[in-house]
Amino acid sequence: MNILVATEKPFAKKAVDGIRIIAEEACMKVSLLEKYTSTEELYAAVATADALIVRSDKISAQVIDAAPNLKIVVRAGAGYDNLDLEACTRKGIVAMNTPGQNANAVAELAIGLMIYMARNQFQPGTGSELKGKKLGLQAYGNVGRLVSGLAKGFGMEVMAFDPFVSASSMEAEGIRAAGSVEELYRSCDYVSVHIPATPETKGSIGKNLLSLMPKGACLINTARKEVINEQELEEMLLERTDLKYAADVAPSNIDALTAQFHTRVYATPKKMGAETAEANINAGLAAARQIVGFFKQGDRKFQLNK
Predict the structure, then answer these.
(1) What is the largest CA-CA distance in the chain?
(2) Which of 280, 288, 274 is nearest to 14 (CA)?
(3) Which CATH fold topology does 2-101+275-297 show?
(4) 103-267 maps to CATH 3.40.50.720
(5) To pair with 97 at 20 to 30 A between CA atoms, which of 27, 187, 292, 302?
């Protein structure tokens, strides 16, 4: 059984070593394709793969078609919009992610972005503190829960909106449940976005929500750029000179935004949410364990294309 680890941006050595150990203990072989520069290299590598581990690498229908033996692909991370789930399903391939493995790294980054924006990107001038501010979490999953805990440590009041999580369970954890996403945006000084990019969420955050935010509010996006209506974001920043936006993935119009709005807008140069040694290792090892569990016990707990 051949597990291919195909990563344009490689895992840490410790993660690769750990993946090998997990695979070898299960009598499986590991092949590596790192820092590849063309899809042709990926096509060639997947040709003999029974299982595939990737990070942000795009696994298209063409990649799937080039892998006749492939039975499972695992995205080492939470987001999975880089996987063509329809193509996987059509070929009978199980697709999984590794939810929660990089959650702490993303949560810490979200808090870091809040501090960075509150202090005017560390430029001269008077900033503000997080203590006493209201934080809204758009989605209350693995990352949202961790952001909540960190924010409480800073003395923030936390509210969340998640249609898939009951208000009673939020309140049991000391979180105020918003009755609607509009209430969340209307009530909070900071809103931290943790929703996936789906047909329903893409472009869903625009004037309709940003216009509701209180004076001096800041939107933090460590999720996906696609959930933001970028044109309407620019229009709102023009209209509301008090609003701020910080993201872990640069909007398509980032140059225009930073030229116009300076310290009111910030985006990391490259997606940094999972870029910690710990998250890198955790996600890689989890992916390997899930593959072994799938082949040995038929475990499909994290299957995405059900």
Answers:
(1) 61
(2) 280
(3) Rossmann fold (3.40.50)
(4) yes
(5) 27
